[in-house]
């Protein structure tokens, strides 16, 4: 089973030392590719750009492929200036999460992030022509769509699929966390730092619905298709991505590593991975259903490798 393991960018606002401790542990683990950088909110200043580059350098020295991730929503002139400076880092591969970053890279190699809306072959060919060496499948795609997308993927362009972690669903100029606490966005008190996995939202019927993380809206549940790793590898997916959460991240990476080494059955994975308190699992998108749903994988195993 041939695939590499990627750790996506940290989406949450964690204390400075917690971030450094987290990436030190990542450096000692089996992840092959690590994305670093602030992708959600430019007001988060526990780590500055220079700190993220220091983290990338530490990871590279540990043998990891470090990738600098760009902010997804560019709102101000200072955001645009920070984006230009990050894209000017010649020594690092960049994950572009919006088209402006691609323009600033001026033909250099990059990873097209999951927010680049690459839903069909023409978009992939366009991105590849601009310098993309890998793209991350849009997070709401199902396995049927992925099969079609892989058939249209240009030669030399790698495919990366997110397999574990809360799903970012949307970004807004409005800060939902600040609004929840009746604060102005520009005077938010950095309340995000109090919620290391975002802030859960429930319906009036007490059903988990969404999570808010500053300007980002996420799935309430942790998307978990770890058991599909073998299927994804057979389809031709090169990289499987884990998105950091406060609990379970290292166990998810270790499970993928065990699978590619052939020592852990896929069906044994999900139940053994801890999640942050109160967080449930979901995998509906992968099966072409509502993303919030959980479909028992054992009853829905389909070998789609032949369709790729």
Automatic annotation (TrEMBL):
The keyword Iron-sulfur applies. Its cofactor is [4Fe-4S] cluster. It comes from the Bacteria. Keywords: 4Fe-4S, Iron, Iron-sulfur, Metal-binding, Ubiquinone biosynthesis. The keyword Iron applies. [4Fe-4S] cluster binds at residues 41, 175, 188, 192. GO terms for molecular function: 4 iron, 4 sulfur cluster binding; metal ion binding. Pfam families: Peptidase_U32. One of its GO terms (biological process) is ubiquinone biosynthetic process. Pathway: Cofactor biosynthesis; ubiquinone biosynthesis. Forms a heterodimer with UbiU. PANTHER family: PEPTIDASE U32 FAMILY, UBIQUINONE BIOSYNTHESIS PROTEIN UBIV. Belongs to the peptidase U32 family. UbiV subfamily. Required for O(2)-independent ubiquinone (coenzyme Q) biosynthesis. Together with UbiU, is essential for the C6-hydroxylation reaction in the oxygen-independent ubiquinone biosynthesis pathway. This is Ubiquinone biosynthesis protein UbiV. It comes from Corticimicrobacter populi.
């Amino acid at each position: 089973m041939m695939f590499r393991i990627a750790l996506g960018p940290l989406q949450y606002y964690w204390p400075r030392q917690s971030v450094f401790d987290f990436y030190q542990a990542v450096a000692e683990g089996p992840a092959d590719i690590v994305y670093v950088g602030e992708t959600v909110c430019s007001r988060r200043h526990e780590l500055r750009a220079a700190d993220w580059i220091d983290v990338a350098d530490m990871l590279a020295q540990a043998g990891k492929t470090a990738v600098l991730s760009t902010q997804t929503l560019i709102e101000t002139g200072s955001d645009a200036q920070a984006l230009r400076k990050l894209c000017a880092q010649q020594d690092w591969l960049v994950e572009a999460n919006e088209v402006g970053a691609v323009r600033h890279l001026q033909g250099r190699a990059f990873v097209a992030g999951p927010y680049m809306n690459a839903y069909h072959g023409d978009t992939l060919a366009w991105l590849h022509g601009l310098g993309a060496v890998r793209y991350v499948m849009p997070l709401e795609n199902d396995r049927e769509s992925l099969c079609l997308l892989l058939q249209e993927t240009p030669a030399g362009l790698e495919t990366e699929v997110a397999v574990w972690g809360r799903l970012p669903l949307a970004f807004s100029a409005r800060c939902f966390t600040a609004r929840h606490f009746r604060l102005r966005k520009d005077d938010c008190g950095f309340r995000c730092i109090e919620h290391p996995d975002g802030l859960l939202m429930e319906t009036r019927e007490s059903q988990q619905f969404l999570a808010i993380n500053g300007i980002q809206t996420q799935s309430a549940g942790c998307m978990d298709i770890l058991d599909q790793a073998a299927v994804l590898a057979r389809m031709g997916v090169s990289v499987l991505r884990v998105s950091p959460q406060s609990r379970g991240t290292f166990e998810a990476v270790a499970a993928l590593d065990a699978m590619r080494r052939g020592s852990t059955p896929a069906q044994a994975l999900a139940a053994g991975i801890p999640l942050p308190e109160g967080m449930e699992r979901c995998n509906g998108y992968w099966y072409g259903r509502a993303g919030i749903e959980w479909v028992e994988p054992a009853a829905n195993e389909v070998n789609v490798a032949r369709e790729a």
